[in-house]
Give the backbone structure.
Amino acid sequence: MSSQKKRDQLILHTALTAGRIMIENGSEIERVEDTMTRIAHNAGAQTSQLFVMITGILMAINGEVGAQIEPVKRRTFDLEKIAVVNDLSRQYADHKIDLRQFADRLDHLDSVSRYFPFWLQLVAAAMVSGPLEVVFRHNLPDFWITCLVGMLGWWVYYVLNKYIQIRFLSEFTAAAAIGVMAVVFVHMGLGNSVDDIIIGSVMPLVPGVPITNSVRDILAGNLVSGPARGVEALVSAAAIGFGIAMVLQFL
Amino acid sequence: MSVLEFIIEVAGTYVATIAFGILINIPRRALNVGGWIGVLGYVLYRFTVLWGGGYVIGNLLGAVAIGVASLQAAKLKKMPMILFNIPAIVPLVPGGQAYQMIKNFALGNNSTALVFLLQVVMISGAIAFGFLLSELVNRIQRRFWRHRKRL
């Protein structure tokens, strides 16, 4: 009986950790529910009851008294972790790893983060800004300066995000910095159009993950988490907009 | 639109989609496919606008294509679908209109700003509805395959 209880404890721990990692890094709710149910099912639990929200998860298995709660406190965008959890869950379903190994690897995954190196992120930010400026505005002469402004804007966003850890404030400051830089560079004669440079340079800051997830969550019937993410996307967009508007006011 | 312009747009969309994927840390083996899905959605949007379909229908069709293609890629690569459709919608985001809206509000041209606000709302709604339609296609396809398997 006690070994059965230990086993149930481990199932709950594994499923809850997997769910928390996925929500923290920007997964949609339906996928979290699906993965957790699969883990419990594959581990031999007869029934599982789940309540997944964007700020916390509640789970019970086998209809026992002790349901467990896992709060979700951080929220970042690291889609690689979602892919890894998905992969581990598939390996577990194919009996390539056992439950203990699964739990260990999840705990390990939780503690390390494997982002692309910072210089590559800067290059990527430049490569989002410049090409999209050309695609949207057909303004080829401003390509290089947009790359530069977008890169510096991402640098401001990244550094601030590291130290103050409020994403909306970093977005606001980065947008304001982009606006100032665009105005200054055009004034110095390095670019032609302030509008085009700003449009391209703010593209790396676009909240793509919350927008997409919000739509998908609402469609799947998660009427609490979907709109919550929509608000997140809206506040981000408003922060960027205010940053730009502030600069334009003082022109 | 000349051929050269078209090539520049396609290349720009491809590079920008992949670069956005790097910023949100998408696994390396999903980047290339994601880039091509972004190009597919954008090209469909661009041709619809070029042939007089209007930007709302264009964004709708682009979003549907992105949704359906992402599910195929997800099945093929055995990876979550959001790895492919999040970077792919970035070229469809109404960045230009949103900027014009903010600028005109800031400068006090409220009536012009409202026109752009309406465009932003329409385009965002079209993209959301496009995802809804692609989900419909995906569910029908899933149902169809399950049916075939049982037979």
Remarks:
- Helices of chain B lie at 3-23, 28-50, 55-77, 82-89, 95-107, 110-150.
- Chain B has one domain: 3-150.
- Residues 61 and 123 of chain B are 11 Å apart (CA to CA).
- Chain B touches chain A through 46 residues (CB under 8 Å).
